[in-house]
């Protein structure tokens, strides 16, 4: 899994939680802000709990998605469910081409090549619910224990 050189990360029970990202811990979504957009993906604990992905159906580029609603539908061998928006946003880009090349991108590299969507946040007030730094690490440590997760990544 690619975590940038010099980027600090919590590694707890095999789960990697990079410190430089923002998180919606309840929805298991990471957020990386880039200028006026944000790149979103599944966290390491989320990809582990889902198991090997078999399909992803993205909402269309240009769609406005309210907080909590699906930006994509993810299917694995043991689960089908939404990839939820951590805030109200407009979809600018999806990583559909990447997942067409390798459906296991989020399993192998959830914080790098396995990103899911690039969005434009539409309600800045909703961004205050995201956590980062020590607070994110504290909450993820508790969540990993609560769910009894030990992370692993697919090799193939």
Structural summary, described in words:
By secondary structure, the chain is an alpha+beta fold. The chain has one domain (9-147): RNA polymerase II/Efflux pump adaptor protein, barrel-sandwich hybrid domain (OB fold (Dihydrolipoamide Acetyltransferase, E2P), Beta Barrel), CATH 2.40.50.100. It contains 4 helices and 12 strands; from the N terminus they run E-E-E-E-E-H-E-E-E-E-E-H-H-E-E-H. The strands form 3 sheets. The protein has a 7-stranded antiparallel beta sheet with strand order 7-10-11-5-4-3-12. Strands 6-8-9 form a 3-stranded antiparallel beta sheet, with no helix packed on it. The protein has a two-stranded antiparallel sheet with strand order 1-2. A hairpin with a 2-residue loop joins strand 4 (29-34) and strand 5 (37-42). It is globular. The two termini are 13 Å apart.
Q: What features would you highlight for this structure?
A:
OB fold (Dihydrolipoamide Acetyltransferase, E2P); single chain; alpha+beta; disordered N terminus; 156 residues
* Silhouette: globular
Mean pLDDT: 91
Q: Helical segment tally?
A: 4
How many beta strands in the DSSP annotation? Answer: 12
How many discrete domains?
A: 1
Strand order of the largest sheet: 7-10-11-5-4-3-12
Query: Architecture, CATH level 2?
Result: Beta Barrel
Largest sheet: 7 strands, antiparallel
Rounded to the nearest angstrom, the distance between the terminal CA atoms is 13 Å
């Amino acid at each position: 899994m690619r975590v940038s050189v010099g980027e600090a990360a919590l590694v707890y029970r095999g789960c990697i939680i990079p410190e430089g990202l923002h998180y919606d811990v309840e929805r298991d979504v990471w957020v990386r802000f880039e200028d006026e957009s944000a790149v979103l993906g599944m966290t390491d604990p989320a990809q582990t709990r889902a198991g090997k992905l078999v399909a992803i159906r993205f909402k269309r580029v240009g769609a406005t998605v309210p907080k909590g609603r699906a930006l994509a539908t993810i299917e694995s061998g043991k689960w089908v469910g939404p990839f939820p928006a951590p805030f109200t946003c407009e979809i600018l880009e999806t990583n559909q081409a990447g997942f067409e090349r390798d459906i296991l991108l989020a399993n192998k590299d959830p914080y790098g090549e396995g990103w899911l969507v690039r969005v434009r946040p539409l309600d800045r007030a909703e961004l205050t619910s995201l956590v980062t730094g020590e607070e994110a690490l504290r909450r993820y440590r508790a969540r990993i224990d609560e769910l009894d997760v030990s992370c692993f990544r697919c090799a193939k």
